[in-house]
Design a protein that fits this description.
two-stranded antiparallel ribbon, about 300 residues, Rossmann fold
Length: about 300
């Protein structure tokens, strides 16, 4: 991308269409763009989500159409290293074999010795037992061994180029830099939700406070079955959510997110659909990116 040229285009567009600075917005809309990275969104990359290219295109169009309404964009970046608890390099069986991608590691298997931490890593050998026990106690998925993905410094870690360009254009036009959030770098825990790790870690209270401050919070990104769904779940479960009627200020762009599906291996479509039903029941709005923002439930002339 030619940044200087795009910056001039954005400034000219803002002047021609009377788009003001985000700091002057009377009604503040935050767009939470979850993990729109090559690793999930570009065919041929490590954990490609079918449907993601179309989701990304629609989200770019949404941003350009609504430059004057979106106050701030919060892109999240799944960020990993080779040696992490959900990568094969972390685990071995009694014969030194490593688990295949998408292997589910249960607490029972860990307790029986089926899987253990590779002793050459030098980590506490009992950590895996404690971790899987706590993970399953929370009624989430079992520990999943994922393909190596979103590797820090790799091309897969970067935002999809068209998405990055749209966010840059918004930043210049609205004079509001994207508020990037790194997640998943802790090697000893999984980190699906943008707001904190599954277990064995601290919640991102600063980001939670930021989201609570918006008049409307819009969600999009990958994957609907995992990082998007669990971020929304965690925000809805926050102690302040009910008091502030947060669910009624939350919107999911249903045509800008898709579930993880690996043909013949895993399909999380049902889990994603169940999550969306749960969000609707809680009072969250499920909308399409092509719907004019002013027609969204609860917004109307407020935008």
């Amino acid at each position: 991308m030619h940044y200087e040229e795009r910056a001039r285009d954005a400034e000219l567009w803002a002047r021609e269409h009377d788009i003001g600075a985000a700091a002057d917005d009377g009604f503040r809309i935050g767009l939470i763009a979850v993990d729109l990275q090559n690793t999930f969104c570009t065919p041929g990359f490590e954990l490609f989500v079918p449907g993601a290219p179309e989701d990304s295109r629609r989200l770019c169009e949404f941003v350009y159409r609504n430059l004057g309404s979106i106050t701030e964009i919060v892109p999240t970046l799944d960020t990993h290293q080779a040696i992490q608890i959900f990568h094969a390099a972390f685990l071995v069986d009694d014969e030194g074999n490593r688990p295949a991608p998408y292997t589910l590691v249960s607490a029972e298997e860990v307790a029986s010795g089926r899987w253990r931490i590779d002793p050459d890593i030098g980590a506490d050998p009992d950590y895996l037992r404690r971790y899987t026990d706590e993970l399953e106690a929370g009624s989430r998925y079992q520990l999943t061994v994922w393909p190596y993905h979103a590797m820090l410094g790799g091309i897969g870690h970067a935002l999809v180029s068209a998405v990055e360009e749209a966010f840059f254009f918004h930043a210049i036009a609205r004079r509001a830099a994207p508020a990037f959030e790194i997640k998943g770098f802790n090697p000893l825990t999984e980190h699906y939700s943008v707001l904190g790790p599954e277990v064995m870690g601290e919640k991102n209270e600063a980001l939670i406070g930021r989201l609570l401050s918006f008049d409307a919070v819009v969600f999009a990104g990958q994957a609907k079955s995992h990082c998007v769904a669990w971020t929304i779940d965690e925000l809805l479960q926050h102690p302040d959510a009910e008091e502030e009627e947060l669910a009624r200020r939350m919107y999911l762009l249903e045509d800008c997110t898709s579930p993880i599906v690996v043909p013949g291996v895993v399909d999380y479509t049902e889990e994603a659909d169940t999550a969306v039903q749960r969000f609707r029941a809680a009072g969250m709005h499920v909308v399409r990116s092509t719907d004019p923002i002013e027609t969204w439930p609860g917004l109307g002339a407020r935008t």
